């Protein structure tokens, strides 16, 4: 006899035990099938990750038949398998049933459930489709009211006796929206708390718990205890953050929690900013052990994620499991893009070309050698800085930069031409992008208009803060904490947002997408965003646009985006790379209007260019062309 049971260790695992008389061949086969998920055990014990065990259920069944091996599933594992079987049957029925008229009597049922906000027609349609699924994804564009629809689903689930409490995992920037919308939508106002980490009191009467991805990973056991208290709906807001799945700390913690939740939903307007591979983790969260039955095999290859055939096949495979409201459905006025491609000043150009020449040989090394040096990411940061403000090179990253952009100052020996150029740069030139930002903000202030300026690097924001001091800039980056958990008297993001929105003397907000590219609404106060620089992160780029182009804009409002690109630099490579990713995402979501909304000029019919292996390959190719 071989037994298997779902046990809670540090993380939930399936523990398999080989009893007396069990087939040696069957046991060896089990070890081979589960090899990639084995995390512990002994000679006659296998401890395997739950997701791997569930993904290999067919292989386990085949082993039982081949070796005629008796197999005993424990009570907890049997209960979990029954739940997943019910999910599978419900999910598959959605694929074959003829959908009823979407929306139906939901408005009346919502009112009876104490839901106070009136949903728009497209929101009712989305809600109706999501409720037909055991678990669902809302991939509507930012600003379409995904939070409201999720709360409506919770209200109905609670009224129908399916769930009793809600766990929301979201970026900190989105907490305020969840708190405000919960109070505005639900009657009576629910008991809500923000989980600040292991020392946070999680009350027994809590109905909604807000936490973020870092805190879940750091306080997993207590979050799991909260889910276990009562039937729980679990919502991942900005779910693209778990794209690394079990290979990332945050993704692994979230995937481990999935088995405990009664209802699971994912929300994100940018579900696959890098390609089809980004959908693997969200689908695995929604339907543990079933993702291989939903997604095509090649979707699991990150390298193939933007291949047109893979994109088309994946789009068709997931289309029935999510809802998406495109921007065209929101009735928003069109956007206007201006691309300002300008040559750098003489000294800046010399700095950039010297830097490029310094590293060009290193970029031509083979993949294995490049990874061994581990320097390519750092070099990318240097090139981005040099294309915007070479002065940043000699100081390195700011302590509040996002972790992935952390890098030391550029190493100078003191005798090379680049060293001399950098020492002299600040004496002879002001970066053209800084001068252009200053002019744009000055002209806007004269018209009583406000401007949002985006930059990846915190040092850029701080330097621009000094340059634009006359316009009393608000600044938001990773070093400016949210109000929740901030020290008394500390400057907070909430206060800076409030000042930008309501103080007529504050005419510019300086921000980086990592800190406020999600969960923030600025569209009633600002209609012009300027990009000082951008990275290859398409999610940040798309999310940042939607801070000022959202549901609720009047027809006569023109939303403008200005892209500042230094000629002959990495800026042009980033622009081309982002274009490719946006086109791919529009195809995955069957949303051609996304391209027109997100790119400087409409190119809906433009074919996706041949897939480059990754962003590093794109950069290497660009350097080679500029030889």
TrEMBL record:
GO molecular function: ATP binding; helicase activity; hydrolase activity
SUPFAM superfamilies, per database record: P-loop containing nucleoside triphosphate hydrolases (SSF52540)
Residues annotated as domain Helicase ATP-binding: 127-289
UniProtKB keywords: ATP-binding, Helicase, Hydrolase, Nucleotide-binding
Family annotation (InterPro entries): Helicase_ATP-bd, Helicase_C-like, P-loop_NTPase, SNF2-like_sf, SNF2/RAD54-like_C, SNF2_N
KW Manganese (keyword) present: no
Pfam families the record matches: Helicase_C, SNF2-rel_dom
Protein name: DNA helicase
